[in-house]
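The instructor's notes for this session suggest beginning with a concrete chain rather than abstract definitions. Hand out the sequence below and ask the class to guess, before any prediction is shown, which regions might be ordered.
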Amino acid sequence: MLKRRLIAILLAAAAPVAALAPVTNAVAAEQTESERLNAFFERVYQENIKRSPVAQSYLGIKTDYDKWDDESDANAIKEFEIAQKDLAEIRTFDTSKLDADAILSYRIFKSMMARRTAAFQYRRYGYVFDQMNGEQSSIPAFLINIHRVTSKSDAEAYVKRLQGVAALMDQHITEAREREKLGILPPKWVYPYIVSDAKNLLTGAPFDSSGKDSTLLEDFKAKVAKLDLPQTDKDKLVADASAALLASVKPAYEKVIALMTEQEARATNDDGAWKFPDGQAFYNERLKFHTTTDLTAKQIHDLGLSEVARIHGEMRKIMQQVGFKGSLQDFFAYMRDDPRFYYPNTDEGRKDYLAEANRLIGTVKAKLPDFFGTLPNAPLEVKQVEAFREKSAGKAFYQRPAPDGSRPGVYYVNLYNMRDMSKAELEALAYHEGLPGHHLQLAIATELKDVPKFRKFGGFTAYSEGWGLYTEELGKDMGFYQDPYSDFGRLQMELWRACRLVVDSGLHDKRWTREQAIQYLKDNTPNPEGDIVKAIERYIVYPGQATAYLVGKLEIMKLRSEARARLGDKFDIRAFHDAILKSGAVPLDILRENVTTATGGKV
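After discussion, reveal the predicted structure:
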């Protein structure tokens, strides 16, 4: 992912970028304190978006459509200084004069800024290039999935961005070298993934004479072909894109390959964040950042062990239900190895997987009104991860819709190796990433009315991923998982998240090796080895992030149990879900207050 754009995106929303009219003293005098605060949020929003061409594109805004963000560390420092001024300014508001919703916005904003402030000292601890969202794959993914072409000027902007890849990649390469000086170097096994991604992008025309178009040229041609332009104009655009690919993209990616080859020789096999300077403090910050709690690494580890034991017990009940004879490990091997639980590793098998995912989401959609008082308008698509990045990309992920309706929400599934995509997990995975999971939550947030725009796109991992995991179990309440093997798949995915607490803290706090973490998952889950290896490699490059799923889900389940006990027969699942979803993303302490108050409790 283009990492430094994330803060701008989190503070962004649907409105077009426009200069705000200056507020006169007379108008300011007439405003309430809440109105003044909301005007402040709007100004901060506008200023953030104006500084980020990438964020604008994500929002469907075509201002600065031919530009990239400034990814230098100097700009990161500048952005932080601006944020600190914003934080100082918000403290000047009189909270005693704010209405309830303005108080909520005030608290969320301060919480976001506090997390950003705590993270800033570790801004260089992330890997510029890695197998998950490294810049070698983020740049083409952005052009393919985000840069829409509906006019000649859009196509020309695409070409300009291709021409700008060389300078953009130079910034990333400079930053990667600087981070190495600080001792921030990916483990040795990461490098072949990055080199593979880079070489994949340089395969095909205009880079070679293989007879096929390269990934970006294929994308550009397909977009230009749909334009209502004379063929001569289309040919000129394609020729310009080809020239930019050769003059800018090719040398940029060759530099990446050279740097990765060079750094690989110096890299070690140490995997955890503990290897960094002040690594323990960094990991503690990551846990707090993602879970929005004060849970320690030890508490996270112990909670994971406890949950693994509980879920194993639930799994044994399904073993008895289907009449399986043998141990839980034997059942794991059966679920992992029997061909009945996988589609063929063929184009036809991939087509069947996508068709079943679409069918399940359609079935869920029909039942949503029984469980949700608020529903999104944005459509949802299920797509296969593109070939150029499928070898290194994660198992599944979601991309939220454009606020202006120009782009749907997309549930991506990685079908590179069908033996990593169990049929048993297919149902729960579709609920988590699609409906009623990430798509419902994020589309509702995008479409919220009368809230500051930063709240529509604010990000708290424990909230969003906790919701995704919660909806996997909610599917059971909705009457799904009729096949006991699919219900086992649901437990399998919950077990996966429980094991994450164990292996993430094991890797980054207890100094486990990659191999130790892989073995733990082999011993305690039914997942195939390829799935296990890819997961552990993800946790290594994203310290703490994977712990937020189960922490968030357990809090939502606890809140629901408390509300049901408090309200008895008056408990309304739709009202409960509204209490969670209609404020946008919030840290878990504020979520507890929101839900408790909405369901008749006292904070």
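Then share the key points. Residues 141-268 form one domain. Residues 231-264 form the longest helix (34 residues).
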